[in-house]
């Protein structure tokens, strides 16, 4: 039987003798090494613009012998041949569809133009098998009887080998199959659908006996998930395709080794805290001997100029975990290491561990691991709120929930572009619920300094523990083992949520905890995303909503279920309407206005199947909308204020608040809800509200008591000067105050409280600015903020709060904003190109006597061309007072211009559209 890497029985049988659980062998003899104080270790510091080609090697350092990317697919219902026939040369594939792997069945059929664009309008409902109720959780429903995906589908590929080298071992890897499969190679069955089961499992087979010189044929018979499977679901944020994303959705490839192969290398770090003066590293790897005889050899580990050696004996077919510990290898005690930090705290220093096993003077296998020297941990504070620490410093988590693509399509460039947006918003974390990403994603987070919260998904078999059968326990344990082994070297990974929304019952929790221990997981673990007490104590987090629209003053109120206290693992101020360009790209012209069923279809499921709460609040606060353009501009203002208020409240309240995750960051398809930027990578008001709120050093207003705060998110102290201004609606200045500010590192300080005033207009403005002294003696602006407020604020009915909403019984009246006079700006721009990037400097001036409100800037490919996204704006949806000038920078890939001249378009709440060509330098 071919060797299958997964070993789920370890988690179920205490005292298991499987080699993954075996005690390491005899203590090694210390090899000659360089002194520990030798610190010339090769580190990697990468900028945002690093080449995507650098992502090609596998995370484990394996050298890919053959990538299997070109396949053909066909439904098994169309023929009766079995795997032995399908996997032989000469089998006819006439009428099969060309396919790409990674790729699900439906994603390939869309690529082949069999089905239309599923993202447009209600096209997806026309797909065969897409008949489940709109908004329903398809993962919990059976496949319709007439669905073409009720039957398994075959994947088949051919590859040619010039030779099969004697003494070599060839390994076939599957990094993601949803949900089951039978695997055949050259007429030989490698495994059946009982063994190959589990979306998040990773499989490897020794295929040496079955390979041949010349043409080889590999076939996989894939089966879609059922409601009884621990698979994937999108819950309520986008539909599940009609095939339930069945197929080979991650990479398939072959590697080649000698008799002894290396698996699961790991580097663990322990820092000396709080000094950070030294780091103690532990290195380990699994060795497998595929030969029929005992092999004696050396495992060699190298980090920069440090080389470690350990002699190893492996019996026939033996697996063994080999460990280098600093007690035996003093070179693993690093003095003054270059640490890995979240991106606004320091550099993302990365090291390379090179492992090789040699026997009889030849290298049988080698691996390279990229790792960071850092330490993350968590604990409960006196209020039972969970606090996270990075390198001994507590960190306020401000992040958002990542949505995988609906079709599970992966693109390194798309992942990079989204993560650049995360940095542009100054967020420090991403939560992935239930869908571990490919290794490219984690390597990008490592290099960009973005923390990752990872766990399983809610609202499906993963949480239906009372229905679990024995096979579910096996698959759950194996899935956790595989994911932890591939995640544990990434410095970006902060915590593993081994439950999901709800912590598992004791029987399941014991299994998960055993796997965590056996895999030597180095980082924090939490049982679930909601407030519960389990075998290991309180989770220290909450998941109390809201998800529907709430007013900006919600978050600071002590009665708000989701307010800024503790760690809120998912929450949101409500829907996020895409900008006009995206609405036109996702909806047919006839459905653009008024809001209809196509809008609702692109909203969500369950309690989020329409936009009624949001639209009602918008009409009450800003006035009813009669046109699409009016509705969209008000929606962006609402999203800006809502996201800013949420993140600001958690920032002000640190360390009573310890973290918040905006639900969500992105969407898996074009959606009307929850994103900070939309499916087409166009940022709206919510993006820039979050960007403002999460500035590294930030000045902000408090809705509850009118206080002004400076939130310092850096580790160093800040000194500067604040200016606080209050204006009536007609811009009569009611207050101006200048204050010296001293904000200790990683703290929030109250600097002022606005006095109560009886002279406020129904709508008024608060304007804040924070400056620091430059080395030249001048002052630079480090933070600015602008609030539009109603004299009578919103009032929530806290007693009627639900898990997703707190009703608003009185809405703040901001309708006076509709009477702002039109303002024509003075607009110009210059551009500069460097290293494939275009950076434009946009100059704005308001020559009028009126406020320019929510100024929205877009860069175009020529005046009549499309907009360029992604584009990293320094600021957007901004205000300009009468006579005020402002300079804003934007950065984007020069190739996105497609040879056209860039043009800046300005518009906004009361700004007619105007254009300025970008002058080159």
Concise summary:
By secondary structure, the protein is of the alpha+beta class. The protein is built from 12 helices and 51 strands.
Features:
single chain; 921 residues; alpha+beta; eight-stranded mixed β-sheet; seven-stranded parallel β-sheet; 14% helix; globular; disordered N terminus
What features would you describe in this structure?
By secondary structure, this protein is α+β, with helices and mostly antiparallel strands. 14% of the residues lie in helices and 34% in strands. It is built from twelve helices and 51 strands. The strands form twelve sheets. An eight-stranded mixed sheet has the order 47-49-45-44-51-50-46-48. Strands 30-29-28-27-26-34-33 form a seven-stranded parallel sheet. Strand 31 (533-534) and strand 32 form a beta hairpin. The longest helix is centred in the last third of the chain and has 25 residues, at 628-652. Mean pLDDT is 92; it is low at 1-61.
How much of the sequence lies in strands comes to 25-35%
Q: What structural class do the secondary elements suggest?
A: alpha+beta
From the alpha carbons, calculate the radius of gyration and give it in angstroms. 29 Å
Model regions low in confidence, pLDDT < 50 over at least 5 residues = 1-61
Q: What is the straight-line distance between the termini?
A: 66 Å
Enumerate how many helices there are, as a single number: 12
Mean pLDDT: 92
State the major sheet. Answer: 8 strands, mixed
């Amino acid at each position: 039987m071919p060797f299958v890497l997964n070993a789920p029985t370890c988690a179920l049988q205490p005292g298991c003798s499987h080699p993954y659980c075996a005690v390491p062998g005899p203590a090694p003899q210390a090899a000659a090494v360089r002194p520990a104080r030798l610190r010339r270790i090769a580190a990697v510091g990468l900028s945002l613009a690093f080449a995507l080609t650098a992502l090609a090697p596998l995370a484990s350092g394996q050298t890919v012998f053959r990538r299997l990317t070109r396949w053909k697919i066909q439904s098994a219902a169309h023929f009766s041949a079995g795997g032995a026939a399908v996997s032989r040369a000469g089998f006819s594939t006439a009428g099969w569809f060309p396919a790409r792997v990674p790729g699900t069945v439906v994603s390939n059929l869309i690529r082949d133009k069999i089905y239309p664009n599923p993202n447009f309008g209600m096209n997806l409902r026309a797909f065969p098998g897409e008949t489940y109720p709109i908004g329903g959780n398809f993962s919990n429903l059976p496949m319709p009887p007439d669905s073409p995906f009720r039957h398994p589908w075959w994947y088949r590929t051919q590859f040619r080998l010039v030779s099969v080298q004697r003494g070599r071992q060839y390994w076939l890897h599957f990094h993601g199959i949803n949900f089951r499969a039978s695997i055949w190679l050259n007429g030989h069955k490698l495994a059946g659908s009982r063994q190959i089961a589990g979306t998040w499992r990773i499989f490897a087979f020794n295929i040496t006996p079955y390979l041949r010189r010349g043409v080889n044929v590999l076939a996989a018979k894939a089966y879609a998930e059922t409601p009884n499977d621990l698979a994937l679901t999108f819950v309520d944020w986008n539909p599940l395709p009609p095939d339930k994303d069945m197929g080979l959705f991650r990479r398939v490839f072959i590697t080649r080794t000698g008799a002894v192969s290396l698996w699961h290398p790991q580097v663990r770090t322990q820092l000396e805290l709080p000094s950070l003066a030294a780091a103690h590293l532990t290195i380990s790897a699994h060795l497998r001997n595929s030969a029929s005889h005992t092999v004696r050899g050396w495992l060699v580990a190298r980090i920069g100029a440090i080389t470690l050696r350990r002699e190893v004996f492996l019996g026939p077919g033996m697996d063994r975990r080999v460990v280098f510990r600093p007690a035996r290898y003093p070179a693993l005690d690093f003095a003054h290491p270059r640490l890995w930090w979240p991106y606004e705290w320091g550099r993302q220093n990365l090291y390379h561990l090179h492992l090789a096993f040699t026997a009889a003077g030849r290298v049988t296998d080698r691996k390279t691991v990229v790792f960071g020297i850092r330490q993350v941990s968590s604990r409960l504070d006196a209020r039972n709120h969970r606090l996270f620490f990075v390198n001994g410093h507590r960190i306020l988590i401000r992040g958002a929930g990542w949505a995988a693509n609906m079709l599970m399509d992966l693109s390194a460039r798309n992942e990079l572009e989204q993560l650049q947006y995360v940095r542009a918003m100054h967020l420090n974390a991403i939560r992935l619920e239930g869908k571990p990403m490919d290794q490219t994603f984690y390597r990008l987070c490592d290099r960009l300094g973005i923390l990752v919260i990872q766990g399983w998904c809610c609202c499906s078999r993963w949480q239906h523990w009372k229905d679990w059968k024995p096979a579910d326990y096996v698959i759950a344990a194996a899935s956790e083992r595989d994911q932890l082994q591939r995640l544990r070297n990434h410095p970006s990974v902060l915590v593993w949520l081994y439950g999901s929304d709800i912590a598992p019952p004791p029987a399941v929790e014991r299994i998960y905890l055993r796997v965590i221990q056996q895999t030597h997981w180095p980082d924090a673990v939490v049982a679930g995303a909601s407030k519960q007490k389990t075998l290991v104590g309180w989770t220290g987090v909450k998941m109390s909503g809201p998800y529907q629209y709430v007013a900006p003053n919600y978050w600071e109120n002590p009665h708000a279920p989701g307010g800024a206290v503790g760690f809120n693992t998912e929450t949101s101020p409500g829907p996020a309407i895409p900008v006009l360009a995206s609405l036109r790209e996702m909806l047919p012209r006839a459905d653009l206005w008024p809001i209809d069923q196509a809008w609702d279809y692109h909203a969500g499921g369950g309690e989020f199947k329409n936009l009624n709460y949001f639209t009602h609040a918008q009409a009450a606060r800003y006035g009813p909308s009669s046109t699409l353009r009016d509705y969209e501009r008000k929606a962006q203002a609402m999203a800006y204020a809502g996201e800013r208020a949420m993140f600001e409240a958690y920032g002000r309240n640190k360390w009573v608040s310890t973290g918040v995750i905006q639900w969500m960051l992105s969407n898996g398809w074009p959606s009307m809800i929850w994103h900070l930027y939309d499916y087409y990578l166009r940022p709206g008001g919510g993006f820039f509200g979050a960007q403002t709120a999460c500035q590294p050093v930030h000045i902000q207003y408090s809705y509850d008591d009118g206080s002004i705060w400076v939130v310092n998110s850096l580790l160093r102290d800040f000194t500067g000067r604040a200016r606080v201004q209050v204006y009536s609606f007609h811009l009569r200045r009611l207050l101006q105050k200048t204050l010296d500010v001293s904000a200790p590192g990683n703290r929030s300080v109250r600097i002022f409280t606005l006095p109560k005033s009886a002279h406020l207009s129904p709508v008024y403005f608060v304007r804040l600015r924070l400056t620091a002294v430059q080395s030249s003696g001048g002052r630079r602006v480090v933070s600015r903020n602008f609030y539009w407020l109603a004299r009578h604020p919103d009032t929530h009915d806290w007693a009627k709060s639900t898990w997703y909403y707190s009703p608003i019984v009185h809405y703040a009246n901001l309708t006076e904003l509709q009477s702002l006079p039109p303002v024509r700006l003075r607009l110009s721009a210059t551009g500069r190109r460097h290293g494939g990037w275009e950076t434009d400097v946009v100059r704005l001036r308001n020559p009028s006597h009126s406020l320019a409100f929510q100024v929205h800037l877009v860069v175009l490919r020529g005046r009549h061309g499309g907009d360029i996204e992604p584009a990293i704006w320094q600021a957007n949806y901004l205000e300009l007072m009468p006579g005020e000038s402002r300079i804003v920078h934007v950065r984007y890939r020069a190739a996105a211009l497609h040879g056209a001249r860039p043009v800046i378009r300005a518009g906004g709440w009361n700004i007619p559209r105007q254009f300025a060509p970008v002058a080159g330098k």
